[in-house]
Amino acid sequence: MTPNVATVHPGWLRITHWLNVIAVVILILSGWRIYNASPIFAFRIPDSVTLGGWLGGALLWHFAAMWLLVVNGVIYMAFNFATGRFGRKFFPLRPREVIGDMVAALKGKLAHDDLTHYNALQKLAYLFVIVDVAVIVLSGLVVWKSVQFSWLRVLMGGFDNARIVHFFGMAALVAFIVVHVIMVALVPKTFVMMVRGK
Amino acid sequence: MKKRNAISGRIQLLDKDAIVKDAFKAMPASARRLFLGRAATLGGLSMLTGCTVVDEESAEKLLMKVSRFNDKVQGWLFDPNKLAPTYPESMITRPFPFNAFYGEDEVPEVDTADYKLAIGGMVSDKHAWALDELYKLPQTSQITRHICVEGWSAVGKWGGVTFSTFLKRIGADMSAKYVSFKCADDYYTSIDMPTALHPQTLLTFTYDGQTLPAKYGFPMKLRMPTKLGYKNPKHITEIVVGNAYTGGYWEDQGYNWFGGS
Ligand code: HEM
């Protein structure tokens, strides 16, 4: 422990991040099993990579992990706003910088010498996944309780459409995770920081 | 599961769940509960990690506790005045999918002449009802969306007596917690009183203007557009009002009890 190195990721962030990972993994794997009970598209997901054993078991996992996702997510956002970190970390987000970083990334020259700041692509990706999770939760509420959340149902274009929104929200989340985990693997120091804080 | 996927018109791949469902039928209740012990396990998760990370029995207990909590949350969210959307005739799904824990060829044949609906529990009038008598109650009909726990949905038209009217007629104690149902196919389920009294909860005798066909639940089906399909009992033979929790066929295997939408 070197006391002169400032903490980059506060404790609440690290805890909520890893709890979120647990919730998201459970939700995705059990969600695939639920999908298989009545596939929207012409494919199914191999049962062996799903969670729950059967539809009833998958639903139990799904409707338990949803609480972890939502409560943990609310805590994450509350801390982010209360500390002013949200504005500092993710903004300003300038389109020009996003494009610049994208070009640099494609050339394999994206700088990561200063890990205390997120580059523009990271900012965009993290903001995207936060919005994506919100969309998944809202469409999920419609699939769960389409009568009680009638205004949300209308917003999502009806019950059947909410299922499609929920599905594509999941697909986008999976795409984010794949890229996210690859990036972390490329710069392993960020992983250490997300565990130890600095 | 045993679903003619008429809504999508797509060919359903052979579903393992259908086989599981068939297997359930032959199983005594105790074995079924044991089966859940394995079914609700970490399955894929232990496969991912290559080990059993959590004691499966305690994981299942915790999950069931959360499910009971979800019952409470749903009871609290339930707005007795909120109506499920209704649809025009043109939107009825044809043919309406058949769905049960057995195949369409195993649908029970209920004999009209012998049939009597038994009434029990916290009611003042326990006389059993013949069908003719039930048909004389004020009838209404409704086109609503049936949502299955599996995720598919289909629009259908059911007609019958508003269930709250019927409960009043039998002098049911409306302060009771549950209304439980027993069915000719050995199915059983139970619902909360607020949903039983919901204006769209109907005890139905017709489907799409015709006497309810056997495959859709002859002689009667309790139709609740505010609940998932498995909460809507068919071939009802007995209705009991009471405070004792009686669960349900699927609910006892792990489906959420409230099952509301
Ligand atoms: C095993 C999977 C995961 C690993 C190893 C991982 C790792 C990391 C690391 C190391 C960072 C810090 C990046 C940096 O300092 O440059 C981070 C940040 C972040 N991760 Fe993950 N992550 C994982 C899964 C997820 C999932 C599933 C989500 C969302 C659904 C997610 C959302 C985020 C967000 C939003 C941030 C930014 C947090 C903030 O600064 O407020 N991560 N992750």
Topology:
The complex is a heterodimer of chains A (198) and B (261).
Chain A: H1 11-37, H2 55-82, H3 85-90, H4 95-106, H5 120-144, H6 150-155, H7 159-186, H8 188-196
Helix pairs in contact in A: 1-2, 5-7, 7-8
Chain B: H1 16-25, H2 29-39, H3 44-49, H4 56-77, E1 118-121, H5 131-135, E2 140-147, E3 153-162, H6 163-169, E4 178-183, E5 188-192, H7 193-196, E6 202-207, E7 210-211, E8 221-223, E9 236-242
Parallel strand pairs in B: 1-9
Antiparallel strand pairs in B: 2-3, 3-6, 4-5, 4-9, 6-7, 6-8
Bound molecules: protoporphyrin IX containing FE.
Question: What is the number of E strands of chain A?
Answer: 0
Oligomer: heterodimer
Low-confidence stretches of chain A: none
The CATH architecture classification of the largest domain in chain B is: Alpha-Beta Complex
Report the CATH topology name of the largest domain in chain B.
Sulfite Oxidase, Chain A, domain 2
Instruction: Determine the structural class of chain B based on helices, strands and strand pairing.
Output: alpha+beta
The shape of chain B, in one word, is globular
Would you identify the CATH architecture of chain A?
Up-down Bundle
Number of E-type strands of chain B: 9
Cα separation of the termini of chain B: 20 Å
